Amino acid sequence: MRWPLLALILAAGCVPKAEGARLVREAEARDARIAELESALETMAAQRSETEAALQGARAQVARLEEVLEQATAVVTRNSADLGTEVERMKEQIQVLEGAIAEVRNEVVRAQRELGEEARALEQRVELIARRAGVDLPLADAEIPEDRAAHYAAGAQAFEAGEHSRARALFRVYVDRYGDDAKADDALLFVGLAYLAQERPASALADLRRLLSRYPRSDVVDRALMAMGDAFYALNACTDARGAWELLVSNHPRSPLVREARSKLRELRRAPRDRCRS
Known about the structure:
This protein is an all-alpha fold. Helix content is 77%, strand content 0%. It contains 10 helices and no strands. Helix 5 (164-177) packs antiparallel against helix 6 (184-197). The longest helix is centred in the first third of the chain and has 60 residues, at 17-76. The two termini are 30 Å apart.
């Protein structure tokens, strides 16, 4: 765990107590999520190993049965009257062996199917835990719609459903594929908003700044500035938060967000001194 070191730093008085307590709680929560993810991975590996061992045993049994069947069939096909009784007995054995082989083959198919289904189920579980922990995992090609409109809609749908990690992954690919599209700036905005929704303001700022740099004349610049102010304020960087909201008010006077920005500026002026570190 890394948070005991964080606790020592906080105890040394480097940051306010309230902020320090919040950081420790976040570190503890992240460690718990990581531990859960590691446990799921270990379980998946153990279960996969057991299933593969069972499958290997079944295959070996099939091979042995097929060898016996081949020998029995050779005896049956001999054209010898002296082996009449033995032939009949071997025919009966062949019928039994054929049934056993069919059963084992069915078991092999079932084991193969269950192995695939179990592996997929465990992978989905691990992916879910990772995404809930805030880990952004790459998407498989099959998870990304080929149609541009469907791609954007899938990202928006994931965002609305609270699947913020998946939404970020979809929108990042959208910007990479369709950087000149009219909705590419909106996609970047959603990436930043998804980070804010998970209380990760520092990560949000990186993509919001990228939006302003890449699309300075975008029609969502006002929303990006509002989100940046929120992110800075969450980080107790009040001066930067004020700058973002004031820029929104001065440069985008017709934005429907102006009233909200002014309200937040008033709130900022009344904020207690220990609320702002800068």
